[in-house]
Every structure is written in C-alpha cells, then in structure tokens.
Design a protein that fits this description.
Elements lengths: L1 E3 L3 H12 L6 E2 L5 H9 L3 E6 L2 E7 L4 E7 L2 H9 L10 E7 L1 H12 L4 E12 L13 E3 L5 H11 L10 H9 L3 E6 L2 E11 L2 E9 L8 H12 L5 E7 L3 H9 L3 E12 L7
Parallel strand pairs: 5-6, 11-12
Antiparallel strand pairs: 1-3, 2-5, 3-4, 4-5, 6-13, 7-12, 7-13, 8-9, 9-10, 10-11
Helix pairs in contact: 1-2, 5-6
Amino acid sequence: MIEQLRAAWQYEGELKRLKTGATAFTTTCFATPMQIGEWAERGALSSISTPGAFLLLRRSRHVIHLSHVAADHQSLSEALLLLDQLTMVEPIVADLVGQPADVEQIANSYALRGFSSYKELVRMTRIGSVDDDRTLPEMAVHRAVHIEAAGVLAFLERLLDPFAEQIPELEDMEFAADRGQILVAANGNAVEGVLIFQTVGFSNMLRYWFVEPRARGRGIGAVLMRSFLMQIAGSRRIVLWVFSDNADGIAKYEHYGFRRENLVDRIMLKSVSGGIG
C-alpha cells in the first residue's frame, strides 16, 4: 500500500493523472520537482496512491509531513482513511494552504480522519524595491559559511516548534549557506540571531527570523532585517508566513512594509502510535 517514492517523475505522473478531468481538483503539494527529487534521493519520501488521490509522506527528524493531490474531496477523504492502516511513531503534520474558505473545506476532510487544527499562519508580502540608506549600528552580522550550517541548525532547533515550523535538514542549511542566504548575528562564537531567506528570480522568501530570547531588546532583529533588505535591494517581492495570533510579529513586519494577504496555512496534526510499515 505504501511505497517509497524514488524520483520526481513519479509524483509528476500522479499529478497529471489526477488533474486530467478532475471535477474538484485539490492539492497541498507545492514543492518544486527539484525539491521532490532531492527528498527522494535522501530516501525521505513514501506515497499512497488510489484511483482518485495521491498522498505524499516526507519523513523528517521529528514528524512526517503529509501533502495530497486529489481529483475531488471524496477521493481525498477515502485516501486519508488509509493512514489508519499504517503504523507510525511520528505525528503526521499537514499544511493546508489557500484562501480561508477553501482551506476550511479541506480541513473538514482531514478532521473527519482524525486530524485536529494545530496552528494557523497568514501570508504577508512586501512589494517594491528597498530604499533604506540609514547606517546600520555597530553589530557583528555576517553571511554564514558552509561550516557554520550545523551551528545555525542547532540554534533553530532550540527555538522552533517542529509541528508548526518546518525544521530544515542539515543539507538544506549547507545549501543556503553556500548561496549566501543565511545572515548571522554573533557575539564571539555564540549565535544570537539568524535570518534565513531563499531567492527565486526577482522574489525572495523570508524563511526564518529569530533572535536568542536572552539577547532580545538590543536591536539584533532590526539589524538582521535591515541587513537582509539591503542585501536583496533589487528584489521586487518578498513573501513570508507568520502565525495569525502573533500580533507583535505581524506589527513588526508591517513596520518594514509587509502587508497581509488573504491566504492562510492551516496546520493539521494527527497523533499516531506504532512504527511506520
């Protein structure tokens, strides 16, 4: 029933099959073929295929991330039922992304199969070029290099919620460092703040922006953000996700020119027991 996914073309074939002639097509799989190929090479992907749906399961260190492709909601519901026949030790997490009304309908299908709402994020976007010529205060901010990736990952793991905030793999951190997409504020050898982003064309995704709790109130977050904005000055668009109940975080992003969009990410969680088989 559950099979290992070994290459991106297998997923693309299922996507094409289910999208053709679908009456109410739905998907929560927004990874690029390159990302899927990399996960497949690491042996992290498994799948469940039915006549009307395809479930993609990606194992990480803490949870199993679930995404789906389905021709209609009934087919999705029937496929999700098959998860109860598996034995797993890790919780299953699903990110349902879309406009609120659409997400609510999909969330109902998940809720009927034992998932519960865990958290919700909203998307914020900043459009237009960056124009900030203010001098940055004296503070050590640098681009992380390859050898620092493990330390940055350890920093994130202490602060992130593994159910709601996808913790990257070491390979992902090393790749970001090699591309100059990790900014670090350090005090000697101690990491006090991190900002990680991803550039695609003329757009940027702000992935993580964290300051060590004991180091807050010293302007570290502001220096990281302004360093980031200056570094991507030619960017036409910056996108990020923030928890919908994080009023302080939303206000900070608005201060830097970000505005909320009518898109949400509803995180659904299913606790299970046993071992994957």
